[in-house]
Write a structure and sequence with these properties.
Elements: E1 4-10, H1 14-29, E2 32-34, E3 43-48, H2 53-66, H3 69-72, E4 77-82, H4 83-88, H5 91-95, E5 101-103, H6 111-119, E6 124-126, E7 149-153, E8 155-156, H7 167-171, E9 175-176, H8 179-191, E10 196-200, E11 208-210, E12 213-214, H9 215-223, E13 230-234, H10 243-251, E14 258-260, H11 268-273, H12 280-293, E15 298-305, H13 312-325, E16 329-334, H14 342-346, H15 353-376, E17 382-390, E18 397-401, E19 407-411, E20 421-429, E21 434-438
Parallel strand pairs: 1-2, 1-3, 3-4, 4-5, 5-6, 7-10, 10-13, 14-15, 15-16, 19-21
Antiparallel strand pairs: 8-9, 11-12, 17-18, 17-20, 18-19, 20-21
Helix pairs in contact: 13-15
The chain binds 5'-deoxyadenosine and iron/sulfur cluster.
Amino acid sequence: MGKKKFYIETHGCQMNFSDSEIASSVMIKNNFEITDNPRHADVILINTCSVRDNAEQRARNRLKNLTPLKKKKKDLIIGIIGCMAERIKEQLFEEEKKIDLIAGPDAYRNLPRLIETAAKKSKAINVKLSREETYDDITPFKIENKGISAFISIMRGCENFCSYCVVPFTRGKERSRNPETIIKEAKNLFSKGYREIILLGQNVNSYKWNSGFGFVNLLESVAGISPLLRVRFTTSHPKDLSDELLYVISKNENICMHIHLPMQSGSTRILNLMNRKYSREWYMNRIEAIKKIIPGCSVTTDIISGFCTETEEDHKSTLSLIEEAGFDYAYMFKYSERPDTPASTKYKDDVPEEVKLKRLQEVISLQRKLSHKSNINDLNKTFEVLIEGESKKNKNNFYGRNSQNKVIIFSKQKNYRIGDYINIKVTGCTSATLIGEVE
Ligand code: 5AD
Ligand code: SF4
C-alpha cells in the first residue's frame, strides 16, 4: 500500500496560500503525499475565504464539482478549512451535506487527528482560535515550487476591526511570530535558491516581538541576509505607516520600492464609519511622505465602492483621492455585507446594487487610465529585474519584476537564468505589463 494522497486548493488572499503550505507540511509529516489531481486524492482540502460573499459562493460551487468524486471513492474525505470554516462553524455540516471535516485557521496541526475522526464517519471539527499559534516551528511545504519567490507569514490575526471586515472574527487575535524562526526560514529559502521573500501579515506595521524589536527591525534583519535577496511586505495600514519605515526602505537597496496601502474610501465620513482610524488628509499625507522619502516607489491600494450610506459626493471624493494619489495599481471591490461584522449590525447596507456596480465601474475605469499612465511613465527607464520564469505566451521570452513589483517581459538572454538579476530598459507597455530589452 502506497501513502495516502491529499489534494489542497486555495481561495483568497496570500495569507491563505501561505497557510496552505503550513497545512500541507503538517500532512506530509504525517505520512500523506501531495497530489495536484483531486481524482487521485484520499483527502481533499479546500482552503476558503470569507472576505466577500462571492468568495464563499465560489468555494461552495467548487465543492459541488468535487463531491461527485465521492461516488467513485467511498472513503474520500472532503474538508473545508480556513476562514469560511471558522465563520460558519458546525452549521457548515448542515449547509453542505457532503463535507466530512471543518478546520479553522488555527487548527492545522490538528488535521491528521481530524482526518482519523472523519475516517470513522464521525463529524470532525476544530474551529478553536488561539492567542499563541503562529506555526513558527513548521517549515511550510512549497506547493507552487517555482523556487524564486516565497511568502513568509510573520504574524496572524487582526485586531483593527474595520467595520466591514470579517477577518478579526475568522483569524482572531493579532500575534507576532518569533523573529528568529522568520529569519531562519528566510535564510533557508535563500540557500535553496530563492531570491525574493514576501513578509505577510494583515497589518505588518504592527508586528512586534518585544519592545525593542518591531517590524522595521525585522525588515532590516531579513534584508541583511544577502544583498541578492529581495524583500517585500504586505499589507500596510495607513494609520501605522511610519516615516521610520520609509527611511529603512530607502536606505536598503534590496527592500523593494513598493507599498500596498489600502485606502478603501476617499471620504473621511465613510472612513470613520469604516473604523479605519484615518482621514483623507492623513492618507494623502502618507502618500506624500512615500513619494518624498522613496522617490520612484510604487503605491498600490484596495478600494471598496458602495459602503453603507455612501453618497454620490462620497464616491466623488474616492475618485478624486484615487487621482491625487496616482496609484500604480488597485484591487477594487463593491461592498459585500458580512454577517456579524460591526457594519452589518450598526449600519444599513443601503446603496442599491446597481449604484454599487456603477460606482465600482467608474473606479475601475479611472484606475485603468492611471495604471496605463504609470506604465507609460516607465518608458525608456532601466530597471533591475529579477528573472522569475519563462513567459507562458512565448517560450523565447522571460518575465520578471522590477523593485516596484511591475511585471516586465523581455527576450531570453544567453548566460542569464531564472533567479538572476538583469538590467532591462522599458521599450513598450500595455496597461498591465511592461515590455523591455536588455540594457
Ligand atoms: N466587502 C468588500 N470588500 C471587502 N474587503 C474586506 N472586506 C470587504 C467587504 N466586506 C476588501 C478590502 C480589503 C481587501 C483585502 O478586501 O478592500 O483591503
Ligand atoms: Fe480587515 Fe481592517 Fe484587519 Fe485588514 S486591517 S484584515 S481590512 S480588519
